[in-house]
Amino acid sequence: MSYEFDFSFLNEYLPELWHGIWLTIGMTFVSIVPGFALGTGCAIGRLYGPPWVQRIVTIYVEGIRNTPLIIQVFWLFFGLAVLQVRVGPFPAAVIALVINVGAYTAEIMRAGFMSIPKGQLEAAACLALKPSQSLWSVQLPQAVERVYPALVSQFVLMMLATSIMSQISAEELTGVAYMIQSFTFRGFEVYLVIAVIYFVMACLLRLTLLGVAQVSFPRKRRLGTPL
Amino acid sequence: MNAATKISTATASATETQIMTRSDTPLVRFQGVRKSFGELEVLKGIDLEVVSGEVVALIGRSGSGKSTALRCVNGLERINAGALTVCGRELHSGKVDLRDLRQDVGIVFQSYNLFPHLTVEQNVTLAPRKVHKIGAAEARDLADTVLAQVGLSDKAKNYPEQLSGGQQQRVAIARSLAMRPKLILFDEVTSALDPELTGEVLRVIEKLAAGGMTMMLVTHEMAFARSVADQVVFMHQGRIWESGKGDMLDKPQTPELRQFVGNGL
């Protein structure tokens, strides 16, 4: 059995590949910050909010974490169409990713907040800090630092999950790959290349988030020890 | 042994409020204070007064209620009955703004509870910056001042984990001092330290006492209580069993205190 590898499509479809790569990167970076903010807000709401907030957050978090992302994407995309709201594939994909990663981030951040010793909260309260000041200056930095590896993992997973967005015609990397292989019939080579590109992007994302940590956690940068 | 007084739940009249503001009024006044955790009554009617500039040492076995009594003073625990007035605020009324109270009443914990992600200087200045809204330059000066008071001027840029237990506890004291409190509570602040580190922390507290700071300490350091405290309070089973000057430890009146100091010294 002999198989002639043919990577000539790389040259021919380079602009499309670049376009797909940029769309994937764009979706990922646009979704991380709002997703993190949403998740952190939900974690705080679930921990310290009034009962009705806790209930709403719990329904949201469990609803998202127990259904497939692609169903959420379809539901949002076609649901918005039913409501006569016209949203392009890219914004729809970003909204879906933010909602999805927000739910997972909420649970990760909740674990982070819960891991802070009670004495820290007591000390902050005894120094006459408002609950909001204690949350912002004492709890949030410690919570993020403690769960940072889990957050990085979640954001990388989210980047990989963008590969389903071609289903709503957001032509990200996987969508481009499907298009190329349907023209060239070189599925094996195409998806091999795509896998390598995803791998490199995931590594770059991890490196970027590592850099963010270096800037955000001066204590860790100086001492290199966990909290 | 102090006779347990009837619980007085007198409401604050205008005249009483005037008396409160007189300088010889105690900074802290317990009147028949009771506190329960569920079924367990931990404080069974405490009467105690702490005047400005006084150092009061609370001693007693674990479970005698001394830490609970201390934690009532800054509102970490709410009393169930009786009256507790701290810095002119009636904690039993249930209408006290605890954040306001805690600007006057500092506390130092057994486990330091420094913020691990902040430098020593940031630990010390966080509350003054957030609560008193002081600027960066003023915060630096304040940190210099209070860290000098505890002998740690050279550690401002270090993180808590780089310090010994004794040094961390001194930073915690400095953090409390930075709020310029009228009263500082010390909750077994040397219990986690070895004798040498205990000594360095006690010397700082002694210096504060000499400087006129009003303090309430829960402590197991009998020698320290005897020499530094103006008033020693021996608690037993949720009551003040015996109290007096430091030398009361030399001539205990009750078998319980005799046994306690016998074991402790």
Protein described:
The complex is a heterodimer of chains A (227) and B (265). Chain A is mostly helical and 227 residues long. Chain A has a single domain (9-223), classed as MetI-like fold. Chain A is built from ten helices and no strands. Chain A has helices at 9-12, 14-48, 51-65, 69-82, 89-114, 118-126, 131-161, 173-184, 187-216, 218-223. The longest helix of chain A is centred in the N-terminal third of the chain and has 35 residues, at 14-48. Chain B is of the alpha/beta class and 265 residues long. Chain B has a six-stranded mixed β-sheet with strand order 6-7-8-3-9-10, with helices on both faces. In chain B, strands 2-1-4-5 form a four-stranded antiparallel β-sheet, with helices on one face. In chain B, a hairpin with a 2-residue loop joins strand 4 (81-86) and strand 5. In chain B, helix 4 packs across helix 5 and helix 6 (165-177) packs parallel to helix 7. The longest helix of chain B is centred in the last third of the chain and has 16 residues, at 195-210. Chain B is globular. Mean pLDDT of chain B is 90; it is low at 1-22. At the A-B interface, helix 6, helix 7 and helix 10 of A face helix 3 and helix 4 of B.
